Amino acid sequence: MRTVKVPLGARTYSIVIGRRVADRLGRACAKLGFGPRCAVVTDDHVGPAHAARTLASLRKAGFEPLLITFPAGETSKTLRQVEACYNELARHRLERRSFLVALGGGVVGDLTGFVAATYLRGIPFVQVATTLLAQVDSSVGGKTGVNLEAGKNLVGAFYQPRLVLCDLATLDTLPEREFRSGVAEVIKYGIIRDAAFLDQLERDLDRLLAREEAALGAVVARSCEIKADVVGQDETEGGVRAILNFGHTIGHGLEAISGYTQYLHGEAIAIGQVAAARLSEKLLGLPAAAVERIRALFARAGLPTAVRLAAPEKKRLFTAMRLDKKVSQGEVRFVLAEKIGQVRWGLPVAEKLVWETLSHE
Ligand SMILES: NC(=O)c1ccc[n+]([C@@H]2O[C@H](COP(=O)([O-])OP(=O)(O)OC[C@H]3O[C@@H](n4cnc5c(N)ncnc54)[C@H](O)[C@@H]3O)[C@@H](O)[C@H]2O)c1
Ligand SMILES: [Zn+2]
Predict the structure, then answer these.
(1) Domains and CATH numbers, the chain
(2) CA 181 to centroid of ligand 2, rounded, Å
(3) Which of 188, 193, 228, 305 could form a disulfide linkage to 274, CB 3.0–4.6 angstroms apart?
C-alpha cells in the first residue's frame, strides 16, 4: 500500500493506493469524523461489480449509506443528473455532516464532486476511483463539474475530496480499451515532468498492460505524485497547472469534432501528444529521437498516434480548438517539450504549422 499527499494547506488530503484498499473506506470515514448518513454515488457498470463491498465497509463502521446509481457514460454528466442527486439526498435527509462517496471513474467523480460542492453549500466527499484514468488523473486536484450542450465541463467548481482510495482490485473488471486510455495520461506525466519515469514505463509497459500489481501500484503512485506536486503549486490553473494539458489542445479538438463518440479521451490525447511532440521538435528543438520514443511508446500501448483528416475536417478541428475553454482571447496556446521531462506552456503556434504537423504520416 502506498500513500500520496496532495499538499493544499488545510485542504490537504491523502490518496491511498493498493489492492483492496476500498475495504478500509468505512474506518477511514470514521476517522475523518463524518456524520452517520452518507450516499454512495455510482453508475450502472460499476455499481453491480463493486458497490456491495463499498456499502458493507461503510455499514461495518456504523454508517447508514444510501446508494444512488445513474446510467454509465459521459451523457450522464449533466445538471439534470445533479438535480436528481440533490433530490435523493434531500429526501433521505442528508445534512451538513453527511458525506458522499464517488464510486467510479471520472464521470462519477466529476458529477459527485460537483454535487458535494453545492448541496447545502458543500458537504465532504471521498472518491473510490475505479478507472485507471480516475486513479491517475481525475481524482487528483479537485476539478469537479458537468457538461452543457455547448461543451464539456462548462459548469463546475474547484472542490477537493477529503480522501481518495485507488483500489487496484477494481481495475480487474475495467475493459481493456478503457485501461489503455488511462495509460495515455500516465505517459504524459513522464513527458512533462519526469524523464526517469518515461524510462521506467518503456521498461515496464508490458507488465503494466498485464495489470501486474507491483507495476501498476508503482505507476499509479508516481502519476499521482506528479499531478499532486503540480496542483499543489497551482490549484486553480493560473500558471504551471497548464502543463497537464500537454497533448490536450489537439486532443480536445478531436474529441469535439467526432461528437465524443469515436475516440476515448486517452486515445484523442495520444494523437495530440504525438502531434505536440512533432511541434516541439520544430519549435523548441526536441530531438527527433525523443519524438520517435514518444510515438513508439503510445503505439506499444495500443493507442493511436496519428489521424487522417480531410481539409474540411481540419477546418472543423481548428474551429473546435479555438472554442476550447482553455483558449484566451481567441488564441490557441500549446504546451511543448524542450526535452523529455521538461515542458513550457502558453506557447502560440501558427495554424499553418499545426496543419502541416497533422498531415505527417
Ligand atoms: N476532474 C478532472 O480533473 C478530470 C481529469 C480528467 C478527466 N476528467 C473527466 O473524467 C471523465 C472520464 O473519466 P473515465 O475515463 O474514468 O470515464 P468513465 O467514468 O465514463 O468510465 C469509463 C467507463 O468504464 C466504466 N467503468 C468504470 N470503472 C469500471 C470498473 N472498475 N469496471 C468496469 N467498468 C468500469 C464506466 O461505467 C464507463 O462505462 C470525463 O468526463 C472527463 O471530463 C476529469
Ligand atoms: Zn486528460
Answers:
(1) 2-173 (3.40.50.1970), 176-358 (1.20.1090.10)
(2) 10
(3) 305
Annotated catalytic residue: which of 37, 53, 77, 143? 143
Rounded Cα gap, residues 150 and 158, in angstroms:
20
Report if pTM > 0.85. yes
In tens, the pLDDT along 202-252 reads 999 999 999 999 999 999 999 999 999 999 999 999 999 999 999 999 999
Ligand 1 atom closest to the Cα of residue 73 is 20
List helix spans (H) across the chain. 25-31, 46-60, 79-91, 106-118, 132-133, 176-193, 195-209, 213-233, 248-257, 265-284, 288-300, 311-323, 351-358
161 lines ligand 1 (CB under 6 A): no
Residue 260's pLDDT band, with cuts at 50, 70 and 90, is: confident
Give yes or no: 322 in active site: no
Q: Whose CA is nearest to atom 30 of ligand 1?
A: 174
Q: Indicate the top mutation candidate among 110, 139, 189 to test ligand 1's pocket, ranked by most ligand atoms within 8 A of CB.
A: 110
